[in-house]
Amino acid sequence: MRVAVLSSGGKDSAAAWWWARCRGWTVDSLVTVCISGEDSPMFQLPGTALVERQATLAGLPWVAVDATGETPQDIEALEAALKGRTIDGVVSGALRSDYQKSRLERMCERLGLQSWTPLWHQSGKHHLKGMIEHGFEIMITSVSAEGLDERWLGHVLTEESFDELERLAMKHRFHVEGEGGEYETLVLTGPHLQGRLEVEWTAVWDGRRGHLEFQ
């Protein structure tokens, strides 16, 4: 199989990318939807431009897709970018969002491609804990949930801090894997990369939520 990996640079797309590699598939490219607007119900915003540097570390082409974040322009832009590529399908890190999964599947159907979502309905706790145990360095790039303060911005998860994150998730009733947008991530290194991503950033915190601005 020859596939494009839909990548935000975060943990779920990194896990999906690794899954494809473990199956022996050829990764044609990393494809990132870069949102120019302030929000998107479909795609991650913080740190997505850094996928280009992840692609360089892996020796892969990077396909940047410009979109406003509005529906249906976002998926139309992605579809146009994929139309000319010689691939069998698209691999994505969708975990629980029926909205995300169904839109990707309909797009792939129109293009005559397959859509793979290898993380679908996995346990968020075991999925994330397993990534940490396998050497993925997962940095938190934004927080927007009660219980997550500015200390978490720029933090790279360890087994110990994941335990703390799990306790906070139980106490404040948010998804430990961040599936509800409680936090976003950037993967600095892992078994799917050759080398480590070095980044510089400034934390922006408004007292309730925050994000990293990368240099």
Number of domains: 2
Q: Give a quick account of the main beta sheet: strands, pairing sense, barrel closure.
A: 5 strands, parallel
Mean pLDDT: 94
Helix content: 25-40%
**What would the principal axes of the Cα set say about the shape?**
globular
How large is the share of residues in beta strands?
15-25%
Short description:
The chain has 215 residues and is of the alpha/beta class. The protein has 6 helices and 9 strands; from the N terminus they run βαβαβαβαβαβαβββ.
Outline the structure in words.
The chain is an alpha/beta fold and 215 residues long. The protein folds into 2 domains: 2-116, HUPs (Rossmann fold, 3-Layer(aba) Sandwich), CATH 3.40.50.620; 124-214, putative n-type atp pyrophosphatase, domain 2 (Alpha-Beta Complex), CATH 3.90.1490. The chain contains 6 helices and 9 strands. Strands 3-2-1-4-5 form a 5-stranded parallel sheet. Strands 7-6-9-8 form a 4-stranded antiparallel sheet, with no helix packed on it. A hairpin with a 4-residue loop joins strand 8 (201-205) and strand 9 (210-214). Helix 3 (73-83) packs parallel to helix 4. The longest helix is centred in the middle third of the chain and has 14 residues, at 98-111. It is globular. The mean pLDDT is 94.
